[in-house]
Design a protein that fits this description.
The protein is mainly α. The protein has one domain. Helix content is 76%, strand content 0%. It is built from 13 helices and no strands. Helix 6 runs parallel beside helix 9.
């Protein structure tokens, strides 16, 4: 099993798609830094053109108030969402939570699973591995471990880099406490586990369709389409809220929410771990039943 994991990690770090996604993560972290700097404020001011200064100030205050929300998770929100008391001068913790994005890591995971699993069906790599008498569950679990490590690295680049840069530029933004740092670590761990649950589900899709493009398309459609639809239904039908809140879509966002408490993080972790266990069990069953050529 250990050799299988080492082999998958070697393939991961040699994979061109993974390297490209690391570059994408760097670009996203750069975008987060720009959004949280004076450059963004200047862009907003310039976009208002020749509007009188007093009207500009009113609009800027409205934008600041729009960034504040009492909801722990707002279904349907996608991309980098900054929730800050002062949007033009966010604290490092606010930047950290914003840098996770919403729906971003799901898209990245879909692309990565397509490149690392679905593509190997057409290349014959899986058949070659099994030809050495290796057990199929070893291959599948080794793939999952490599995916978890990939998700951890990408999330670290997306979140830690902009947080450090903004802290160096603007300071911490409030009185520093060790508990704040511990809270950030808990959020990161919860987000990695939630991302791993997404990867486990995407692996089932890749195992079923055996196509790189189809895996990416279906994963993106599911993890972007369903939360978008939920944005229209959430809060209207109580039964829908109860169902949606136990699904990975909600708990992936819950894990990174700046308003999530310890109980919320624990709930996200538990649901994600259950999702991982069920997904791996189902995925291995499907993989073992396939006639791989």
């Amino acid at each position: 099993m250990l050799k299988a994991i080492q082999a998958e990690l070697y393939k991961l770090f040699k994979n061109r798609t993974f390297k490209v996604l690391i570059c994408v993560a760097v670009l996203l972290s750069t975008l987060t830094v720009v959004m949280c700097s004076s450059v963004f404020e200047k862009i907003l001011n310039d976009s208002l053109g020749n509007m009188p200064q007093d009207q500009k100030e009113v609009l800027m205050e409205q934008l600041t108030s729009m960034s504040e929300s009492e909801a722990i998770v707002t279904p349907g929100q996608l991309g980098i969402q900054l929730q800050a008391k002062d949007m033009m001068n966010p604290t490092s913790i606010e930047v950290y939570h914003a840098s996770f994005g919403s729906g971003v890591i799901e898209i990245i995971i879909g692309i990565l699973v397509g490149a690392l699993i679905a593509k190997e069906y057409s290349q014959g790599t899986i058949k070659n591995f099994l030809a050495y008498g290796k057990r199929r569950e070893e291959f599948y679990l080794a793939k999952f471990v490599s995916m978890v490590i990939a998700v951890t690295i990408i999330l670290a680049v997306m979140t830690i880099l902009p947080t450090i840069v903004v802290t160096l530029m603007n300071g911490w933004g409030k009185a520093f406490e060790i508990s704040q740092l511990l809270g950030m670590i808990k959020t990161f761990v919860a987000s990695v586990i939630a991302g791993s649950a997404v990867a486990a589900l995407a692996m089932i899709i890749a195992t079923l369709v055996k196509s790189n493009g189809a895996t990416i398309g279906i994963t993106v459609a599911i993890f972007i389409g369903i939360p978008t639809l939920a944005g229209f239904l959430y809060g209207i039908y109580p039964w829908f809220d109860r169902v949606y809140e136990v699904l990975p879509f909600y708990n992936s966002a819950l894990a990174t929410s700046i308003k999530a408490g310890n109980g919320d993080l624990l709930r996200s972790v538990i649901i994600s771990l259950v999702t991982i266990a069920i997904s791996l069990f189902v995925g291995i069953k499907i993989f073992k039943s396939q006639d791989i050529k």
